[in-house]
Every structure is written in structure tokens, then in C-alpha cells.
Amino acid sequence: MTVLKKNEKIKLELKEKLVMVNRVCKVTKGRRYFSFTALVIKGDENGVVGYGFGKAKEAQDAIYKAGEKAKKKLLKINIIKGGTIPHEQEAKYCGARVFICPASEGTGIIAGGAVRSVLEAVGLTNVLSKSKGSSNKINCIKATILALSKLRTVNTIALERGISIRKILKGSDNNY
């Protein structure tokens, strides 16, 4: 996972997906005040994704604010050939727990609700996922992005450890 720099964000063609709009009511002694919240996911379907949560008096303004916040929180995710992820990963955010797993070619995205919209925005095409615990859309999205940000390819691991890719794939010769 890498956070994109400002000049990298300008070049991207992002697609916006509205996950939810919620009407909120504040009741006072004199009257009721209505406002709106919106949750938006932006992605280029090529490994970049971000989410935003906006609040405003009008629904359109809330959606616009959420979209602008999503642009500021863009992350680069590791995707491997075949539109899947390099390995299984699980992440927890508050009460939401998300488990994502690589799938073979032709499987498609097996995910529900908010998790599916994040995986589509990233550009994954073959992934299995399971969501447990809270079904709160905000927490599910944050848990999914946390799981995706923990993914590492073989090349990344080899660079971090300072050893060859062949040695990582073959495993250790020492059996302790």
C-alpha cells in the first residue's frame, strides 16, 4: 500500500460510486433540522481506491463533499495478473471483520454490499470475501481497505528482506 502524491492524483481518471445517502434529523425544542450524509468510493479500476464521508444540508452537497474527501484519501493497492490478490488477508475495523481471498480466473467478485463496491473500484475481478460482525457500511469499507492495504506481492517481500524471489518461493532449506 502506498499513499499517492498530489501530482499522481491529478493524472488519474477516477470513477465514483455512491454507496449510501442517509437523512439525519436533529430534533430541538422548536423544530426538526434535517441534513444528509453520503458515503462515496472513488477508484480508477487499476489498483487505486479511496473513500469519503460527507455531511451537508442538501444531499447533492453531501455527495460532492464525500467525493472530494475520497480524492484526498487515495491508496495504491497491489493487484496481480488475472485481477486477483496475491494472498489471503483479514482485517478488522471496529466491529466489522472482512476476510478476502484470491480466486481463480472466471470466478468473479463474490462479496456483499459495501465490500463489493470497494473491490470493484480497485479493479479486482476474481476475489472471494466474507464479512462478519458489524454490517455498518462505513466500518465494512474501512476494514476492506485496511485488508487491501496489507497485501504484499512476492517482489515487495523480496525487496524488504533483501533476498531473491526464487528463495522466497522455494522456501527455507533449514528445517528447524
UniProtKB/TrEMBL annotation:
Keywords: Ribonucleoprotein, Ribosomal protein, RNA-binding, rRNA-binding. It comes from the Bacteria. Transmembrane segments: none annotated. GO terms for molecular function: rRNA binding; structural constituent of ribosome. Residues 14-77 form the S5 DRBM domain. GO terms for cellular component: cytoplasm; small ribosomal subunit. GO terms for biological process: translation. Belongs to the universal ribosomal protein uS5 family. With S4 and S12 plays an important role in translational accuracy. The N-terminal domain interacts with the head of the 30S subunit; the C-terminal domain interacts with the body and contacts protein S4. The interaction surface between S4 and S5 is involved in control of translational fidelity. Part of the 30S ribosomal subunit. Contacts proteins S4 and S8. This is Small ribosomal subunit protein uS5. It comes from Candidatus Karelsulcia muelleri.
